[in-house]
Design brief:
Number of strands of chain A: 12
Strand order of the largest sheet of chain B: 2-1-3-4-5
Shape of chain A: elongated
Order of helices and strands of chain A: HEHEHEHEHEHHEHHEEHEEHEE
Oligomer: heterodimer
Number of strands of chain B: 5
Largest interface: A-B, 26 and 24 residues
Helix content of chain A: 40-55%
Shape of chain B: globular
Strand content of chain B: 15-25%
Number of helices of chain B: 5
Largest sheet of chain A: 5 strands, parallel
Number of helices of chain A: 11
Helix content of chain B: 25-40%
Low-confidence stretches of chain B: 96-100
């Protein structure tokens, strides 16, 4: 018998003092921690407070029954191996106990060898369960490492390469216009890759842990103008008119950085999928119960059949009009996730060639 | 002041090269380099820089946050106490989500720096941000 086996904790629950005595005297020879209880409630209390490997349960007990105990233990910790001991070893009883999570059945009266054999089987089962848990844990860790692997191994060189190109572009080297154009194109593609890596990481992180947002009362009006200003270059380049219809101040409970990200994604879409000389209209209003945010553009619009797929990962409308528009297919996934975090909802109204409107409704009391 | 000592701390050799190249265009800047948090603290007492550009996430010993906290310590017993007013600009490559949080927290114990720059940065922007911080600290006019 190995040391790990010796250090296992075994619990016996039976209202019959003779059975408790027999089990204890047989098992204590081989195992250090063997505990016996006459009431299911005491055993449950013990399981809640201590690590337990195996439980022997009598089915017929006053108070909490064996069946109920099995169910409760299973809810607490699925890794505990449960063995039923009973004088009423009927098939029906066995099936019910197994369905509730017991893994074996020992009929009373049993010989010491039968008990030892049942415990041995339970231990094997327990070892398998633990191995499986370890394997799952390793898999989880590998996935997490994979994320940080991607983050560092891909992000650092991409960022460094972009940095070097910036240096080439703006570092007073003698470069003719043609070469400038080449550099500019290379920079665009690398920043696209950078953005993709960042957004992919963000979405995977959100899926794994959700946002770790702290919601605080925030005036979101300045966030809107801040995000609009960030896109000033593109706005001017495409001669867009940005109209914001908002109150002077408007506070909601939110996480400012997530909310900025939501705004940023919607505003950048309204710019990217617009037409030269088009308009972007951002409206913010609220009543007692809801905050309503609309981001509308006068751009190329979205065909009806694509609308249901807009919030799916990596989905992008691919046609003549969108061919040259960069995007990761994750922006709206992130937006939807943030809206969900606010227990709100998002709607899309769109007409091809006329424009698109995203309408977000957030409840005031979260 | 016509000789400004700038200490650049980053574990990425290419980034150091870029910053070195950009800053060398300005004769008034004297550039010193460190490749880890520990090296930064060593250089700090040796070089006594006027400004530190500090990478936040370094794979070597101590990270930028920790280094900045040590430098900005207001405990008179801290070995770096006399350098607590040396301006620090953080260099980060974090995604946008944390960016605004950073901005909110500048100058607080959570963000013990005077400014932060998101990598990659255009040469002109880098020079401008450095100039702004130097002006704020009256190191240049």
């Amino acid at each position: 018998m190995t040391d790990t086996e010796k250090s296992l904790t075994i619990v016996i629950v039976d209202d019959d003092p003779a059975i408790r005595h027999v089990c204890l005297s047989i098992l204590q020879k081989n195992y250090k921690s063997v505990f016996a209880f006459d009431k299911a409630s005491d055993a449950l209390d013990f399981v809640q407070k201590n690590p337990v490997d195996i439980i022997l349960v009598d089915l017929k007990m006053p108070g909490i029954s064996g069946h109920e105990l099995i169910e409760r233990v299973n809810q607490l910790n699925r890794d505990i191996v449960i063995v039923v001991i009973t004088a009423y070893a009927t098939i029906e009883n066995a099936i019910e106990a197994m369905q509730k999570g017991a893994s074996d059945f020992l009929a009373k009266p049993f010989t010491p060898d039968e008990l030892r054999f049942a415990i041995k089987k339970a231990l094997d089962k327990r070892e398998l369960i633990l191995q499986r848990a370890r394997a799952l844990q390793e898999k989880r860790e590998m996935e997490e490492n994979y994320l940080s692997f991607v983050s560092h191994q891909l992000k650092s060189p991409l960022s460094a390469a972009q940095q070097l190109l910036y240096l080439l572009e703006g570092g007073n080297y003698s470069i003719d216009n043609e070469a400038h154009e080449v550099i500019k194109r290379a920079i665009n593609r690398i920043s696209e890759a950078n953005r993709l890596v960042n957004e992919w990481l963000l979405v995977s992180r959100m899926e794994k842990a959700g946002f770790t947002s702290e919601f605080v009362e925030t005036d979101i009006v300045p966030l809107i103008s801040y995000e609009v200003e960030r896109y000033r270059e593109e706005i001017n380049k495409n001669r867009l008119e940005v109209i914001t219809e908002t109150p002077e101040r408007y506070t909601i409970k939110t996480d400012p950085s997530s909310f900025s990200m939501l705004l940023s994604n919607l505003i950048s879409n309204a710019i990217k999928y617009n037409k030269i000389g088009g308009r972007v209209i951002i409206r913010l209003r609220g009543d007692e119960r809801f905050t309503i945010l609309e981001v509308e553009d006068t751009g190329i619009g979205i065909k009806r059949e694509y609308i249901p797929r807009l919030f799916s990962k990596f989905f992008r409308v691919r046609d003549e009009k969108t061919r040259n528009i960069e995007g990761t297919g994750l922006g709206l996934v992130i937006v939807k996730r943030i809206v969900d975090e606010h227990k709100g909802n998002i709607r899309v109204e769109s007409e091809p060639d006329k424009g698109t409107k995203f309408i977000i409704t957030l409840p005031k009391d979260l | 002041m016509n000789n400004i000592k700038i200490l650049v701390v980053d574990d990425d050799e290419d980034f150091l090269f870029t910053v070195r190249t950009i800053l060398s265009k300005k004769p008034e800047y004297q550039i010193f380099e460190a490749r880890s948090g520990r090296e930064c603290l060593e250089q700090l007492t040796k070089v006594e820089p006027n400004l530190i550009l500090l990478d936040v996430i370094m794979e070597t010993d101590i990270d930028g946050f920790n280094v900045a906290q040590q430098i900005k310590s207001t405990d008179p017993k801290s070995p770096y106490y006399k350098y607590r007013d040396v301006p620090i600009i953080f260099l980060t490559s974090v995604e946008q989500k944390s960016k605004i949080k950073f901005a909110d927290k500048i100058g607080t114990p959570l963000m013990p720096s005077d400014d932060f720059i998101t990598k990659p940065i255009k040469p002109a922007d880098l020079l401008q941000r450095i100039e702004e911080v130097l002006k704020k600290h009256r190191l240049i006019n």
